[in-house]
Amino acid sequence: MKTWNTLGLLFGLTVGGLGCNDMTESDSEMETFTPGSDTSNNEWSDTEWSDNDRDEDGQEETSDTYGIESGCNGHFISAEAAEEMYYLTQISDNETIYTTYDRIDGIATLFEACGDPWGMFPTTYRHITNRIIEAIEDKEIEDTQWGKDIVLDFASRYFDNLQKALTNDEPSYAWAQYYYLADQDDVSRTRAVVVAMVAHLTLDLPYAMVEIGTTEDHEDDYFVLGELMIEITPDFLDELLYYYDTDAEDILNGFFFGNWVDGSFGEDTTITLSYQTIRTKSWNNRWYLEQWWGVLIAETEIYTSFWTIDGVLATLDAAGTI
Fold first, then answer.
1. Model confidence over 228-263: pLDDT tens digits?
2. For residue 185, how many other CB atoms are within 10 A of its CB?
3. I want to staple 243 with a disulfide (CB 3.0 to 4.6 A). Which of 5, 112, 130, 295 is the partner?
């Protein structure tokens, strides 16, 4: 159990009231992501952390990028690192797709330095966001402003839920389930990270689309961006294995590509754990949420879908399949 979380992050009592303009020095001097570049070239990249020095006792010494002397408490981030992460979740009114990427990358890096399983999602999210930024820059979608808006709003929902988890506040039911599962020694990390992806896709995505004024005219762009997640899957699979010793290749290849290895996951699993199905449902739920009579339909569908998928993953986990 994370002791800083149990204590409710005492720093939150003193900084919890800070506004968007009350950033720390490290936050205001955030390094800017180089558009179109691979994340490995970013100063906050995983490369910096993977080459950690070791002290005389063989313990990893974390980078002082954030002014933290010791960023880890065993395999969890320390209270100091959690405090720095808290600031990274506080977005301003002047966010861009690049500062958003930097925040995700910074959060991922802090978690990766310790192998803290809460970081499995931002490790994947960093690659996804990077690729979408490239698509916006290269005009692979028609409405680039809509693309920027979805990056910002979508990520803000992850930041908000992480901030609540860091301060012992109450995240959404979907994100609470991810953080709970990630901390359980008897739960597969593969199950946990897929739950996080499903939380973001089923719950956060339709509400983000409503918030930014998505219309039927954006359907092509929506599905183009969705395809990009499939494209970069091998990149974050490698990092999940490297940082978290999590071999999610079979289940995530099945999830994204619909190619269930040797049929071992079963026909019902293919239907339930289909990325194509989930993103189509999210698009449809966006439409329902916009209708005064459709809100309850969408909320019920979102809730049911999330827990159904979690149940399938739990079954696979119990059977030792993932």
1. 888 888 899 999 999 999 998 888 877 877 766 556
2. 5
3. 112
DSSP character string of 180-195: HHHT-TTS-HHHHHHH
Say how far apart CA 173 and CA 190 lie, in whole Å: 19
Please name the amino acid found at residue 152: L
Phi-psi sector, 195: left (phi>0), alpha (psi -120 to 50), beta:
alpha
Q: Which two tokens stand for residue 199?
A: 């939380």
CB-facing half-sphere around the CA of 243: CA atoms within 13 A: 33
Sequence letter at residue 165:
A
Element at 60 (helix H, strand E): strand 60-61
Distance from C-alpha of 265 to C-alpha of 69, rounded to nearest angstrom: 45
CA distances for 137 relative to 132, 142, 151, 271, angstroms: 9, 11, 13, 34
Q: What pLDDT, on a 0 to 100 scale, did the predictor assign at position 139?
A: 96
